[in-house]
Each structure stands twice: as structure tokens, then as C-alpha cells.
Structure to design on (527 residues):
């Protein structure tokens, strides 16, 4: 029976996007999702710890990814390779020589920036101006507005577009040639200022390798330098033949891995968007040479469907195809998700050719070719990679789930509208009061449900306050045990998003909740 439902007014849409982001960051800390690392020692730049709710959400994201790869594809298997690897691997992969970012310092603020990011931000400013012009015109002309025509004919739009295109071309060439002087000149010519000091007092642009180095073995033994892996992919490449042979895999097949990666990022910005220690979920798909563009298109579509299946709205995602390709790729795209600071890369999909495997063959001197039983010949497989950052995915989910609502009674509630399958806690059971057998009854219910999904017990404060606490961490269901429960074995179940409350039998609880909160429920919706 439906007791009541209230219409909620969502406030957050009216809020400035920087404010939304600030709120999400402080919410993450206040509710045990993400803490700055080493906080009592004033933190460590761009390193974060996940708290009691954060770790559950993060694990659920990983489960969703892992199961969508390994359970849903009979030709994809997983591995877990070590973080430390033979240092020659990073020579072979190109990371020792080419995993660099161009950095530039502002002499007045003493702040360091990535030169490419400063220029890309400038390109984004032109894009914003163009979009603003179009939005204004749309308002002016109403239904009669022909956006395509306006883009092509408006002198203002054309002027900005020409500037943007010229900058883009100059920038792409400078990056392709890694012409550091030219990158600096672009920054000067565009009048780009340091956001802190507001000046153009820039140093030269220098190359900076992003890999962390450490030593293995004692010095007496002849210690040698090794690196903390900057991507998990190489662990897959150097194991691909082990997996292929022991798993009797036939091309096409994939290997998935989730694990930590480390990059000494020059500029640590935007919370967990750019970290120095982060986690990646990567899948390398091994294919016959010549089929790579078809597989690239297929994986683009498969991965986009995985994202959109979470229900945050297709309009919040877009592809960004790369014009400047990495040394190993012959096609590449990013899946970008709309964050409070713009559309940003969450995942990369790359057609990596046979570059990595050929390099490892060359540097190791071992034959790692695949024998194709159908063709009766050996070849070095081509690879399509899908690579997504767990932490960026986490951040985008938090940003899109965070919601402030004005209720009919004038109060505001903060609710995390997390997809139920990802929520840290699925159901909180609350005795109306802390006595008269109600706590015992509540624990009895948890003891039955806890084998099926993550439950919590909460008896502190008024029921209203307890609901707010659960809303704030995204718990989809709350169950209240009251005096009637002791007589008739029924409880009140309350739904997070609608705040609807229903009286149901205890025996019905598992059926109502379980189907909606499992990762399986998400996977079944994937086409
Ligand atoms: P960016 O251009 O933002 O530095 P990238 O193109 O170097 O990212 P990839 O090497 O393609 O990133 O890595 C794959 C994924 O790993 C990215 O899409 C992102 O989600 C994640 N990732 C990369 N660097 C970081 C980082 N410093 N912090 C958190 N996640 C990261």
C-alpha cells in the first residue's frame, strides 16, 4: 500500500557548477567516501584514501566493469600482474623515452603547469564563446532557429571559429613535433596568463618524465632502478602468451586487469580527477592484423553502452576522437563525461597496432608470436585497448548523483541518487526506538538479509535524521521496525528517490530489494 509520496524540487540545477564541485568534494569527506591521504600530516599532493563508504562504491564500480568484461564475454579472461616489472619493459614500451609532459613555470606565482593543458584550456575558451553565441541566438529566434545555418553564417561565430582552428592547428603541429619553443610561443601569443599571479612571466617549456623510480635490491648486491608502473597494460602484454597457451585462447580474445598505476603528475588538480596514485581497469583485446578498425568501432560502442547503462543521461557523454595519435596507435578516442568543470576524459579506447608486442619481442629476444590454427601461420596480434580510470569514474558518478532538494515542508535534503547497484549500503534497518524488543527484531532482519546484500543497522537519533543520513550516502532502501512489527511481522520500507513509504511483510523484503541492487541487475540491462 502506498502511504505517501512527495514531489521534490531539485535545487542543484540552479547552482553554479564550481559550487556543485566544491560541495561534492566536501560531501565525499564528510560522509566517509574520500579523505586526503596523510591528512594529519597536512596531506600529500594528489594522493587520496577511500573511506568506509568510498571503498564500497569503488568496489561496486570495479565489479560492474569486471563482470561486464569477464562474465559477459566468453573470450575475455582476467589477470592480476605485479606492479614492479623488469625495467626493460618500460624501455620497450617507450615510457622511458617518451612518457613526458611539457611543463612550464610562472616565475611570479612559482606555480607549475602543463603547457599542453594551458593551450587546451584556451581552445576550450573559444569553444565556450561559440556555444554562448549560439545559445543567445537560439533564445532570440526561438523555434525558427536553424543552428547549422547560424554556425556557418554568423560573423561572430566565424571569427571565433577561425581563431580556434588556427590555434588548434598550430598546437597540434607543435605537439606532434614536440617543439617546446613553439609551445611557449603559443602561450605568449595567445596572452595566456597564470591563473594565480595573472602574469605572463613564463619560463621555458621543459620535458618531464612521469614515471616514479625506486631501487630494488641492496646496494651491495648491485641495486637497480625500477619503476612503479604508469599503466597496467604492459603487465597484460608480457603475459599474453602465457594466458593464450594455458587458457587455450583463440584470437580474438581479451585479457582484463584492474590495478594501481602511478604517475608523477605535474599539476595535481581537480580532486581525484588527476592523482599520482590511481587505479585503472584495462582490457587488451588481441586480434588478427587488418581487423583492428572494425574491432575499434565495436569496442567504442560496447564501452559507451556500459557507461550509458548507469542511467545518467546519454547527453552527458561524448566521444573525442584523437587527431594526435600516440606513437603506438592507429586510432584513438576518449569517452568524455560531463563534469562540473566541463566534458572530461574518463576512458580511452586505443587501437595500439602490434607495437607493444613487437617491441617486447625485440627487447626480450623471445618469440611471442601467435600461431593461428585456422590460417596455419604465425603472426603478432594487433590490439584494441579499453582503459578507464576507476577514480575518475567514481568522481563522475558522485557529481551526477549529488542532489539537493527542497521538500514540501521547506527543508532541504541532500540525496545521492546513486544507481542502486553501486550504492555502498543497500538497506538500513532501523528500530523506531532503542527498547522494547525493537532492536532485537531489527537485528533479526539484518541477520537474514546480510548474506544477500550490504545492510546497516542504525538506532541513533530520530527516524527523520536517520533517513537524511542514509539519503546522503545513497542508501536506496530504509526499513523501519515499529511496535506493529512485533505483532504482524510487517515493516515500513522507504524508497530513497521518491521518499515513498510502504508497509510490507518481512518475508517480502529480500524479494523487493535484491533484484534491484545486484550488479547482475545492471548487467542484464546491457544490450
Ligand atoms: P590525461 O590526458 O587526462 O592525462 P591520459 O590520456 O594520459 O589522461 P590514459 O593514459 O589514456 O590517460 O589512461 C587511461 C585512463 O586512466 C584515463 O582515461 C583516466 O580515466 C585514467 N587516468 C589517467 N591518468 C590519471 C590520473 N593521473 N589520475 C586518475 N586517473 C587517471
Amino acid at each position: 500500500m502506498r502511504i505517501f509520496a512527495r514531489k521534490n524540487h531539485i535545487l542543484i540545477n540552479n547552482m553554479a557548477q564550481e559550487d556543485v564541485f566544491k560541495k561534492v568534494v566536501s560531501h565525499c569527506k564528510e560522509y566517509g567516501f574520500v579523505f586526503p591521504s596523510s591528512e594529519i600530516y597536512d596531506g600529500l599532493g594528489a594522493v587520496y584514501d577511500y573511506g568506509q563508504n568510498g571503498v564500497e562504491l569503488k568496489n561496486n564500480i570495479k565489479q560492474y566493469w569486471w563482470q561486464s568484461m569477464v562474465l559477459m564475454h566468453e573470450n575475455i579472461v582476467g589477470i592480476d600482474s605485479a606492479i614492479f616489472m623488469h625495467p626493460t619493459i618500460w624501455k620497450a614500451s617507450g615510457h622511458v623515452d617518451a612518457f613526458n609532459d611539457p611543463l612550464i613555470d610562472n616565475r611570479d606565482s612559482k606555480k607549475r603547469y602543463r603547457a599542453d593543458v594551458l593551450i587546451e584550456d584556451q581552445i576550450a575558451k573559444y569553444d565556450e564563446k561559440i556555444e554562448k553565441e549560439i545559445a543567445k541566438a537560439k533564445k532570440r529566434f526561438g523555434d525558427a532557429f536553424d543552428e547549422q545555418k547560424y554556425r556557418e553564417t554568423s560573423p561572430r561565430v566565424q571569427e571565433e571559429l577561425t581563431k580556434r582552428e588556427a590555434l588548434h592547428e598550430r598546437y597540434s603541429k607543435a605537439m606532434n613535433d614536440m617543439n617546446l619553443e613553439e609551445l611557449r610561443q603559443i602561450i605568449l601569443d595567445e596572452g595566456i596568463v597564470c591563473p594565480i599571479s595573472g602574469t605572463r612571466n613564463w619560463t621555458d617549456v621543459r620535458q618531464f618524465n612521469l614515471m616514479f623510480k625506486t631501487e630494488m635490491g641492496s646496494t651491495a648486491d648491485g641495486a637497480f632502478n625500477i619503476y612503479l608502473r604508469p599503466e597496467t597494460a604492459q603487465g597484460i602484454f608480457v603475459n599474453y602468451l602465457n594466458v593464450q597457451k594455458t587458457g587455450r585462447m583463440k584470437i580474438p580474445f581479451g585479457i582484463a586487469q584492474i590495478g594501481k598505476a602511478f604517475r608523477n603528475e605535474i599539476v595535481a588538480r581537480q580532486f581525484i580527477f588527476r592523482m599520482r596514485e590511481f587505479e585503472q581497469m584495462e582490457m587488451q583485446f588481441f586480434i588478427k592484423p587488418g581487423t583492428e578498425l572494425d574491432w575499434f568501432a565495436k569496442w567504442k560502442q560496447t564501452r559507451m553502452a556500459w557507461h550509458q547503462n548507469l542511467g545518467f543521461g546519454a547527453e552527458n557523454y561524448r566521444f573525442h576522437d584523437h587527431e594526435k595519435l600516440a606513437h603506438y596507435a592507429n586510432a584513438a578516442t576518449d569517452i568524455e563525461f560531463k563534469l562540473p568543470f566541463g566534458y572530461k576524459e574518463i576512458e580511452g579506447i586505443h587501437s595500439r597496432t602490434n607495437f607493444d608486442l613487437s617491441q617486447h619481442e625485440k627487447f626480450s629476444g623471445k618469440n611471442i608470436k601467435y600461431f593461428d590454427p585456422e590460417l596455419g601461420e604465425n603472426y603478432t596480434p594487433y590490439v584494441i585497448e579499453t582503459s578507464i580510470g576507476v577514480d575518475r569514474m567514481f568522481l563522475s558518478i558522485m557529481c551526477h548523483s549529488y542532489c539537493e532538494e527542497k521538500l514540501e515542508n521547506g527543508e532541504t535534503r541532500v540525496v545521492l541518487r546513486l544507481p542502486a547497484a553501486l550504492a555502498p549500503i543497500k538497506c538500513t534497518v532501523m528500530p523506531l526506538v532503542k527498547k522494547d524488543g525493537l532492536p532485537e527484531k531489527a537485528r533479526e532482519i539484518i541477520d537474514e538479509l546480510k548474506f544477500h546484500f550490504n545492510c546497516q543497522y542504525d538506532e541513533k537519533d530520530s527516524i527523520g535524521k536517520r533517513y537524511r543520513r542514509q539519503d546522503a550516502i545513497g542508501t536506496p532502501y530504509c526499513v523501519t521496525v515499529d511496535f506493529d512489527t512485533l505483532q504482524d511481522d510487517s515493516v515500513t520500507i522507504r524508497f530513497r528517490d521518491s521518499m515513498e513509504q510502504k508497509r510490507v511483510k518481512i518475508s517480502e523484503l529480500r524479494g523487493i530489494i535484491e533484484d534491484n541492487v545486484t550488479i547482475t541487475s545492471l548487467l542484464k540491462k546491457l544490450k
